[in-house]
Amino acid sequence: MNRADDEGRVTLSDVAREAEVSISTVSKVLNGHSHVAASTRERVEELLLRHGYPRGRRAGADAPLIEIVFHQLDSPWAMELLRGVEAVAAVRGAGVVVTHSGSRHAPGPEWIEAVVRRRPLGVVLAFSSLSPELKQQLWSRSIPFVVIDPAGDPDLDVPSVGSANWAGGLAATRHLIEQGHRRIGIITGPEDMLCSLARLDGYRSALTMAGLEPEASLVEFGDFHAEGGYLCGGRLLAHEERPTAVFAGSDLQALGVLEAARVRGLRVPEDLSVVGYDDLEIAKWTSPALTTVRQPLREMAEEATRLLLRPRDDKSPLPTRLELSTTLVVRASTAPPPQG
Amino acid sequence: MNRADDEGRVTLSDVAREAEVSISTVSKVLNGHSHVAASTRERVEELLLRHGYPRGRRAGADAPLIEIVFHQLDSPWAMELLRGVEAVAAVRGAGVVVTHSGSRHAPGPEWIEAVVRRRPLGVVLAFSSLSPELKQQLWSRSIPFVVIDPAGDPDLDVPSVGSANWAGGLAATRHLIEQGHRRIGIITGPEDMLCSLARLDGYRSALTMAGLEPEASLVEFGDFHAEGGYLCGGRLLAHEERPTAVFAGSDLQALGVLEAARVRGLRVPEDLSVVGYDDLEIAKWTSPALTTVRQPLREMAEEATRLLLRPRDDKSPLPTRLELSTTLVVRASTAPPPQG
Hints:
CATH topology of the largest domain in chain A: Rossmann fold
InterPro entries (chains A, B): HTH_LacI, LacI/GalR-like_sensor, Lambda_DNA-bd_dom_sf, Peripla_BP_I
Keywords (chains A, B): DNA-binding, Transcription, Transcription regulation
Shape of chain A: elongated
CATH architecture of the largest domain in chain A: 3-Layer(aba) Sandwich
Distance between the termini of chain A: 82 Å
Pfam families (chains A, B): LacI (PF00356), Peripla_BP_3 (PF13377)
CATH superfamily of the largest domain in chain A: Response regulator
Largest sheet of chain A: 6 strands, parallel
GO molecular function (chains A, B): DNA binding
Radius of gyration of chain A: 26 Å
Number of helices of chain A: 12
CATH class of the largest domain in chain A: Alpha Beta
Oligomer: homodimer
Number of strands of chain A: 12
Strand order of the largest sheet of chain A: 2-1-3-4-5-11
Number of domains of chain A: 3
Protein name (chains A, B): LacI family DNA-binding transcriptional regulator
Strand content of chain A: 15-25%
């Protein structure tokens, strides 16, 4: 069966009629056959373009794709990032292919094979710990890629989009200080992630700038998930001199802290203030609604996708680092500390 | 490089052996070359089909794709479904293309054009209100599709995977009755969705079977989102004779009910029991953790994808309807009613 005919029957007939040639001639032009007069080819190609046929169809290029790769699909993060990629890709008529690398720190070798066959316009990698092999594989195949890097730990030789973690930690802590809190606990992320350390440093700087002494016993390292928030929150709340506020480091960890408070009979925000980080959809619907630091995940993904899609010479490199700002969103989980 | 060879090395050898021709002949058939005897072509094509080679490979098909289309990407549902599709597709080496149709009830005309060009193995549609046009477009292009239909409103001429909504409503309500509740409110979904009505009927049947009179004033129709749960929950809790339990119809609506309870100073589960529906990831981390009806969203998506990927003759239809069971998951948001 003739492929060109099969793919776009209606439009091809229209083109043939308009160009006053046979459908088979249109099909030959599409398929790059040589025995078509140059003037005919030109006319047909012009019409194909006008009717929405991108140049260079035939293989991969005829159905433009953007790839996005996640470590984990089970975090609400993933959806925010996917929405950003999808929104920008849709405008450009590109499909979005989602891959989930699972526990491995990079997709396996079969992934790069599939990507090469799919010939995407580019790849968005939603994790920052890129192996040298992966980078080399993408470079050697001239597949452009951008890293979305909420972890704040970009490779210097890789284009990435991140957000302002230190400033976010600072803003969260300042907000609590302004409410009158003096004993403020923090649950940051894993100790080996730069974003955890940047948020922690922002917290410490806010305390120091307010003349408060950061206290090592009020610092916990979680896992960015609800369970970590629950465990670390439990430890902070069991503290002899209990903090009146906790900066939870992520919205999921904040959920865990809310539960740790509830099981101890502590009301939020009356007995304990809680600040999250991320501003996921769910942050509006926790009880109470969560004061949090908005990390512009969707915008980061949009920016990464725009970088991949912007017209450029084959050789022009992508910019190395783009950092979007974070903003404090005040809702109902923070209030002045109880009168002690 | 010979593309056909590259695509399916192992199976091509098998086909060549079975057809008693050279691999190069099989490749010629695949590539549509003309100098192959008609009888040979027929034999090889028949074997290619039997070995799972869809007709008309060559382009697109060498990087197999599965499409999934959502109305909305902003519900936690979407991620569960995507995970299911991705898990099954990955095992088969297929990429997953995600499309988001937005406010429209079906993806626009440019979508079907893109799908035709991408030539996916099949399409999973994560919504049930298929327009006749969309169905016709997919049928006429021989693109297999399966509907994931948590809404419980399948077209009879369309293969779909759903779950047992009536049984879910029954189980949720029975659980509350067993805890000793007699005044039980329900917030079901929109009135025009069959799943809403099925869950509501399950609720009514559970009441009736327990000798309780269903009360119209205790029935609210929400939107399956947190905001609807908050508004409807507020109305139920403002009731003169307040219900001691609410079956919230979805986990997101349950979040809204938890918040409606909190702002009224009602403790869950001491003063009010709440049951959700779906068992999203978040249901483990609400405060308190949510008793809910588990809707096997991921398994539904897996099943839908398996249906698309299973080997079959070109003409054999997909099964019309597959329904997975729902199960009650008891956590901390339900307890006996307060002593009145």
